[in-house]
C-alpha cells in the first residue's frame, strides 16, 4: 500500500525529543512513528514505507551516522535529517557528505525542522529507494 501522507520515522534515545518532534510533525498532518534506537527502527515492519528519517547523531550502540550507512547498504535512499545536542563541524560535514538533507542542533526551531523536512520529501519524490 502506498501512503498518500508521508510516514516520518523519528529515531532518538531522548524521550522528550521524540515526543516533541512527534507532536510537531503530527500537528502538520504527518504520520509519525518513533523509535528509541537505530536497531528498533531497522526492525520496523514499516521500513519500506518511511518517507524520511529524523535521527539523533549520538545514540548508544548504533549512531545516526551508522544508521544512515546501514540504510544505504540495504539499498534505501530515504532522506535523513540529523539532530544533535553536540554539534560540531566534523560531524556536520560527515553527515552532509554521507547524504543527509539537514543537520540541526538541539534545541532546534520547529520551523527549521519543517523546512528541512519539506526539502527532504520533495527530493524523495524524485528518488526514493536506490
From TrEMBL:
It holds the Pfam family Response_reg. InterPro entries: Bact_response_regulator (IPR050595), CheY-like_superfamily (IPR011006), Sig_transdc_resp-reg_receiver (IPR001789). The modification 4-aspartylphosphate is found at residue 56. One of its GO terms (biological process) is phosphorelay signal transduction system. Keywords: Phosphoprotein. Residues 7-121 form the Response regulatory domain. This is Response regulator. It comes from Bradyrhizobium uaiense.
Amino acid at each position: 500500500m502506498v501512503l498518500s501522507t508521508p510516514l516520518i520515522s523519528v529515531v532518538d534515545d531522548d524521550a522528550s525529543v521524540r515526543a516533541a518532534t512527534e507532536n510537531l510533525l503530527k500537528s502538520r498532518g504527518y504520520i509519525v512513528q518513533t523509535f528509541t534506537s537505530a536497531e528498533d527502527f531497522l526492525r520496523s515492519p514499516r521500513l519500506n514505507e518511511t518517507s524520511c528519517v529524523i535521527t539523533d547523531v549520538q545514540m548508544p550502540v548504533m549512531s545516526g551516522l551508522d544508521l544512515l550507512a546501514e540504510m544505504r547498504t540495504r539499498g534505501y535512499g530515504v532522506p535523513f535529517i540529523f539532530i544533535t545536542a553536540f554539534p560540531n563541524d566534523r560531524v556536520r560535514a560527515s553527515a552532509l557528505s554521507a547524504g543527509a538533507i539537514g543537520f540541526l542542533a538541539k534545541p532546534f526551531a520547529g520551523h527549521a525542522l519543517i523546512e528541512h523536512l519539506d526539502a527532504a520529501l520533495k527530493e524523495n519524490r524524485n528518488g526514493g529507494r536506490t
